[in-house]
Write a structure and sequence with these properties.
alpha+beta; eight-stranded antiparallel β-sheet; six-stranded mixed β-sheet; globular
Length: 388
C-alpha cells in the first residue's frame, strides 16, 4: 500500500511498493488526490514497467502532463526506499509547467537544440504571469547511459538566461543496461527532458557534496573520451595507478571503493567530483562524466556526509522556510557509501524524510551548466501561509 503519512499536503506527495504498474498508479492516485495539477512527476525503481506505470497514471490524470524516469534508487515518504515508486504533483494554483524533449541525443545538434530551448523559454514566458527571474527553475532528466550530459547542457543552459537549472541522469538499479524517461505517454531512451516550472512559492536551487580536494594529483595520459574510458593515468595502466593511489590492489576495485574515493576536477576556481563507474577491460576505468587526455585529476577526501547534508538543508530552511517539497537528485554513489555504515544510512534517510525530499538516486547530477557526480542537487520549495 502507498504510504500517505505526510505532515504536509499542500504539495501532494506519496510513494508505493505495490508491484504492478497499474496497481501502483492506483495507489499513487490515492496518495496524490484529485485536484487541478500543473504536472505530476514520478520516479521508479527498475522493477516496474515504465510505460505501464506512466500510462496507467495518465488514466487518472488524462489532461495533466506526467513526467518521470527510471532510477538507481527512490526517495519517497520514508526517505530512501527500495523497489518503490515516489511521486508528487504541483498544484495549478501555484505552478505553471511546460517542457520539451530532446530525442536521439547521441547525435544531438547543439545549435538546433539551443534554438529549441530558446523557443520553449519564449513560449513559457508568454504563458505565465509575472517575470521568469526569481520565479522559474528548470529540471532536466537525461538518459543516464547516453554519455551525452555535457553536450545537452552546452546546448540548453546558455539559453536559459536567469533560470536556475538542476537535474539528474536516470538509472537502472546499477544494471547499466537501459535507462528511460517518461514523456508524452512514452518511455524513451537516448533522450533528455527539459522541464520549466514557474511558481509563486519561494524556492532555492542548491547542490552539496561532502568531498574536498587533497594534494594527490594524477594526469590522464591515455583515454577514449567518446566512451569515457581512461586507459592510462600518470603513464601507467589506469586500474593499477588508481588502485596504488588509494592503497588497494587492482583486483579489489569495486563500486564501494569508487564511491569512497572519487576524483575531482577544477573548473573556474571550484572543484567538482568525477566518479568512476566501473573497471573496463584489462586496464581501463569507465567514468560517469566526460574525461579527456591531459586532464588533471585530484584525489578527493570525504567529510561526514550526515553533517554536510544537515548543514545544507539548514541553509535551505533559512532561505525558503520549512520546505513543502524538495525535488532531490542524489547520486547513487552517495547511497552506496552510506550502505557501508547502516547508522549513517538511517540518519540520512531520516533527514530526507523530515525535509520532504522526493526524487531519485542518479547516474550523475546536473547543476547550472555542469554535469557532476557524488552530489546532491535539487530545488527546495517553500510555502507562504497567506497562500493557503
Amino acid at each position: 500500500m502507498a504510504d500517505h503519512k505526510n505532515k504536509k499536503t499542500r504539495i501532494p506527495k506519496t510513494s508505493t511498493k505495490v508491484k504492478t504498474g497499474a496497481e501502483a498508479a492506483g495507489e499513487l492516485f490515492i496518495g496524490l488526490g484529485e485536484q487541478s495539477f500543473a504536472a505530476v512527476f514520478f520516479f521508479t525503481s527498475g522493477d516496474y514497467d515504465l510505460v505501464e506505470l506512466g500510462r496507467s497514471l495518465s488514466t487518472f490524470y488524462p489532461d495533466i502532463p506526467i513526467y518521470g524516469c527510471t532510477s538507481a534508487g527512490v526517495i519517497g515518504v520514508s526517505g530512501y526506499e527500495e523497489d518503490s515508486v515516489s511521486a508528487f504533483a504541483l498544484p495549478a494554483s501555484h505552478f505553471h509547467v511546460d517542457a520539451d524533449v530532446i530525442g536521439d541525443i547521441s547525435t544531438i545538434d547543439i545549435s538546433a537544440w539551443g534554438e529549441a530551448t530558446k523557443n520553449l523559454v519564449d513560449r513559457f514566458e508568454s504563458n505565465v504571469t509575472g517575470p521568469l527571474k526569481d520565479q522559474t527553475f528548470g529540471l532536466v532528466l537525461i538518459d543516464g547511459l547516453s554519455l551525452a550530459e555535457e553536450t545537452i547542457l552546452s546546448a540548453v543552459y546558455p539559453e536559459l538566461g536567469d533560470i536556475p537549472l538542476f537535474g539528474g541522469s536516470a538509472g537502472d538499479d546499477l544494471k547499466f543496461k537501459k535507462t528511460q524517461i517518461f514523456f508524452n505517454s512514452e518511455a524513451i531512451s537516448n533522450c533528455a527532458a527539459l522541464i520549466l516550472v514557474h511558481t509563486t512559492c519561494p524556492f532555492q536551487v542548491f547542490r552539496t557534496e561532502h568531498f574536498v580536494e587533497t594534494d594527490r594529483k594524477m594526469v590522464i595520459t591515455e583515454a577514449d573520451p567518446a566512451s569515457r574510458i581512461v586507459h592510462e593515468i600518470n603513464a601507467s595502466p589506469a586500474t593499477e595507478e588508481y588502485a596504488r593511489l588509494i592503497g588497494v590492489q587492482p583486483d579489489e576495485l569495486n563500486s564501494t571503493l569508487f564511491a569512497a574515493h572519487p576524483v575531482m576536477v577544477r573548473v573556474g576556481g571550484a572543484y567538482y567530483v568525477r566518479s568512476i563507474q566501473k573497471p573496463e577491460g584489462e586496464d581501463g576505468l569507465r567514468f560517469f562524466c566526460a574525461i579527456d587526455e591531459g586532464l588533471v585529476l585530484t584525489l578527493a577526501k570525504g567529510q561526514d556526509i550526515v553533517t554536510n547534508l544537515k548543514h545544507t538543508l539548514q541553509d535551505v530552511d533559512k532561505a525558503v522556510g520549512d520546505p513543502e517539497l524538495i525535488i532531490g537528485c542524489d547520486c547513487i554513489f552517495r547511497r552506496l557509501e552510506l550502505e557501508q555504515t547502516p547508522e549513517k544510512y538511517d540518519q540520512v534517510s531520516d533527514i530526507l524524510r523530515e525535509h520532504n525530499v522526493f526524487g531519485f538516486n542518479t547516474y550523475g547530477e546536473q547543476f547550472a551548466g555542469m554535469h557532476v557526480n557524488q552530489t546532491f542537487t535539487g530545488v527546495a520549495i517553500g510555502w507562504r501561509d497567506s497562500d493557503d
